[in-house]
Each structure stands twice: as C-alpha cells, then as structure tokens.
C-alpha cells in the first residue's frame, strides 16, 4: 500500500485546498467496503470504474503525446497504476476528474476497467484551481502551456500575480516572464509549444518590441540553429544599432536593407556588426568588434582567414 501513498510537495496553495485528510492506513478495507456499497468515502483511495469518470472540463493540458501515453500504458500493464488519479463525486455512480487525465487515458489504453482514485469534495472554483496547480507542478508542460495556465488562474480564479506566485511557489518575476510569452506573435508561440525554440530564446525575443523584428529573429534562430547566447547577441545588435546617417537620396527602404544586413552579419559572427554608410551611393565600411584575441581568432576563422 506504500506504493499508493501520495507524494507531497505540491505547494502551499494546493495543500490549503486539500483540507480533507487521506485515510491511507485503512484504504484496503475501505475500498472493499465501498465497492460493496458503491459509496466511496471522501478522502480515501478507492477503485472506481473508468466508465464512471468524466473528463475534467477545466483541464489545462490540451496536448497529449501518443508515444508517451503508450509507454505509460505498457508500464501500467506490467506494474499497475502506482499514483491514483483525483476525482470528485458528482452523484452515486458518476465522478469528475480533477487531475490525472494522462494516467486515466493510459489506463484505458492498457485495458483497465477500474483504477485507484482519491475522492475529493470541491466546488467549481476549487476544482479549477486544484487542476491548474496540480498540472503546473509537472515538468513536462511546455512554456506556453504554463503561461496559459498562469493566465487562466489570474482571470478565472481572480488571483493577482503575487498570489499566483505563492500558489505555485514561484516568484513574481518568473510568473511575469511566462505571461509575457503570450504577447509574442502566434507563430512564435507555436514554435515554443512545439519545441522549435527554447524558453531562453523566447525570453530574448520578448525584449524585441517590434513584431516584424521578432519574427525576423525567430526565423534566424530556426534557420541557423542559433544558441540562446547567439540569439541574445542578435537581439542586442538590433536594439543597440543606430540608423545609418542618411545622405542625399538614401530612403527608409534602403535603411531597412542595411539593417537587415547588419542583423544577418551579427547572426553569422555572434557579435554586434555595424555598417557605416557615408553617402547615398552606398559608400561605407563594416565594423566587427571583438572582445579578446580569442574572440578575434574565432571571427577570423569564420572568415576563412
């Protein structure tokens, strides 16, 4: 029965919501009695038929990896379901999932007809918050799922960022950084979700105010497989660069072309590159700064010197 004991450490917010004690010691006898009476005792571990469990409408996770589900299903077939799901009782023979949809799906895939579950009492507000907090503790959520979960907790649970931070044991700056991801263009959010770029890349992109430039840097990261450091240098180059001095006849479109060249060169050399344009005919120079002899050697190597 020790295998069924629930892990702790889900944060003070979740602990505060789960005020009812878990009667693990008597779970075996309770399960037998409850199966006979069909009235599981709240707070205990009970075996419930999977066809009596409805999916949680507040589930924040929308994407389930099929291969990972198959692997979990194989494990459940061999070992059984080690960690019970959590449900609330809707009526005598019907339950609604609070957390553990991945485990439920895998159990059904493994052919189980009943699985162990904690039975809780929760209203819709508590249920939403419990599901969100339970999921936010998982390491396999991508950054966009975390950000969307934070947003839902703020909007639907009426929480301030400080309160949210306390619920999930994260400081306010971390919460803010996740929420800022949702201000990025949809294509970049999809890239974060699909693992095309990391959270580090995303944080660099957040610092680029202009959407067109954000998309440009995003494309450069993917096309050239830029590291987070290289992406940060590219962003810094965009932020720090000054517009070329305009000579007679040098228009805005030409300025943009020079700026794009600077960005491409900065990406190639992993350092800030500046084009100094002196007149409307395009006369000028290229400035590639270096920080040390080692850095110079690196740049010369890129130039096939």
Tell me about this structure.
It is built from 14 helices and seven strands. Among the domains are: 2-123, Conserved hypothetical protein from pyrococcus furiosus pfu- 392566-001, ParB domain, CATH 3.90.1530.30; 246-305, no CATH class. It is elongated, with a radius of gyration of 27 Å. The termini are far apart. Strands 1-5-3-4-2 form a five-stranded mixed β-sheet. It has a two-stranded antiparallel sheet with strand order 6-7. With 305 residues, the chain is of the alpha/beta class. A hairpin with a 6-residue loop joins strand 6 and strand 7 (284-287). Belongs to the ParB family. This is ParB/RepB/Spo0J family partition protein. Keywords: Chromosome partition, DNA-binding.
What's a quick, concise take on this entry?
Belongs to the ParB family. It contains 14 helices and 7 strands. The chain starts with 11 loop residues before the first helix and ends with a helix.
* Structural class estimated from helices and strands: alpha/beta
CATH topology term of the domain at 2-123: Conserved hypothetical protein from pyrococcus furiosus pfu- 392566-001, ParB domain
Spatial shape: elongated
Gyration radius, to the nearest Å? 27 Å
Biggest sheet overview: 5 strands, mixed
Per CATH, the class of the domain at 2-123 reads Alpha Beta
Looking at the overall shape, the CATH architecture of the domain at 2-123 is: Alpha-Beta Complex
Strand order of the largest sheet: 1-5-3-4-2
What is the succession of H and E elements?
Answer: HHEEHEEHEHHHHHHHHHEEH
List how many beta strands DSSP finds.
7
- Between the first and last Cα atoms, what is the distance in angstroms? 69 Å
Strand share of the residues? 5-15%
What percentage of residues falls in helices of 4 or more residues? 40-55%
Total of helices: 14
On the 0 to 100 scale, the average pLDDT is 76
State the low-pLDDT regions, or none.
1-38, 242-254
